[in-house]
Queue: 2 jobs
Job 1
Amino acid sequence: MDAANGHADAARENNDGDRRLVRPPADWFVLLERVTAEIAALLDNRRTWRDLQARGTALESEAAGTDNGWLAELYHRDAALGIRRMVDGDRRTGSFKRLLQKMAEEPRFLTEAWFLGDSTGAHHEDLAAAFREQADPLRFGHLNPAVPRADLAALSDRTAGIKCWVDQHITHAQLDPHSTQPPPSDIDAALDLLAELLEKYTSLLRPGGADLPGADGLTPGT
């Protein structure tokens, strides 16, 4: 069964005439798992770097010493590369951009009914309010495609300079580069946005936590 048929089957009526609960496609959870690991590693590296700076074993500017400047250069190049991976639009990649694109293309597979699950009472009301605020402000009953599109636009804007620099100076030896190395503040801003968006889409795709069955019986995070 190909992916298109598998997705269509999520909303197809079964032989008893009962409509199945629409579930997000399994590949969304695969992408979420991948970007979670990538972003967690980037944030962990940043914590280590900041700890080194706080303890005085790394410098805040290259003017204070060649060796420490070299270490700072390594950290920021690695962070820029990691950020670049998360905004890669190639369909063969497991990037945050691909996850947001897929969700914008097929928003009806993230429904409020699936998100609410078997919740009841106050918890049900809290979940419903959270879904409407984060995913469905116009009350479609499913993800508004404008939401992931807006988040993708914000992410693309925040990372444009980083992506351009990586493309011209790291992944390719461009003969006529026009970009300059992004300052540490740009790296931090991009990481902050990635962390914020990861928290948002994790809450949308794993409303019941890591043990909640996902699409097609897939358990998110496995």
Job 2
Amino acid sequence: MQLAMKVVRLELFYNHAASQRFLHEIRYLSPFFAEEVEHFCLRLLSLLSLYEYAPALAVTAGKGPDLFVKDEHSHYRLWCQVAVPNDKQLQRACHQSDQVLLMLPQADQQKYLQAHKQSANLQICGVSADTLTDFAQMLKANMQLSVWRDDDMLQITDGQQLLELAAPQVSATLH
């Protein structure tokens, strides 16, 4: 199903006691043209999972990553994709980035792991269909989310629903 909203206003409260980060930010996010709800939810969940590394969201769908972290020389330190890339895209990502993260629906994760070999700088995370469905119910034009991060878990709430999500493990060079 396509996302009907043109812009999402996200008021985010982010807490990570271990790194002593307690942040509050308002972001305006635009879905890609004709973007599916599941894809947008995965991009937003990836943003929340990697939030303390100051990732940037891609503004258009294309050959580049959906979410990324670059250094001062415009080198990709982290390349995050939320849809299964073709072999050429994945090879490009692995060569151009220090770390590649695929945040996939669990069904796609299982198919991908069976069909492809892993690169040294590639990490694949699966998000359950139930989590995606629950998060899609949280989507609104004006969202207010609170995120609590423990070392390997994220708890995301909009005040009514609470989601728990395993946080991806990122390279120590991003810290």
